[in-house]
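Entry 14. Ran structure prediction on the chain below.
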Amino acid sequence: DITDQFQRPAGGTGGAAPTGTKVAFAGTSILAATEGNESALSRSTDSGATFADVSFIRTSITNVADIAVAPDGSVWYMVANDGTDTSVWSKTGTTWVRLMAIRATAGTFVAKLDPANKNVLYVVNTGTTSFWYTDDAGDKKWTPRIATENIADLAVESAQVIYYASGLNVRKSTNSGFLWND
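Output, structure tokens:
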């Protein structure tokens, strides 16, 4: 699946999704609570179009895989897992929120930030062909992408121009990883 994935209550992609969602209005926000693995209390400030996880019910951080910090320090991104599921978090000010949960995947992840745009983030499951891209700081959507070979490392030149290494090969994309050149 290479289509954009919009945030939903308890975030996430892959694996079994949380169940038993309960929804309530709180002023101008919509709150949704889920049950099950990687469940959370999520908040939407855009009439339910997207949700950010703000309080966690069955989530734990056992391993911090990587951290990426914007050059001005205004936003931090963290990739962490519990040995089974991987989550992508962001911190602005003193607030951490989960942007995405990748269920049933606890590979070796890295977070790569565009040096000129703190809203552009790539999250790579190294040793595989899988990675995710967002150009809105993970607020509304993540686009899954697939490389042509297992990725050892990824470098971000700009929002659209990225490179990955695999063995002795280096591949370049000028469209955020949609197509690759040698």
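Residues 22 and 90 are 24 Å apart (CA to CA). Will compare against last week's run tomorrow.
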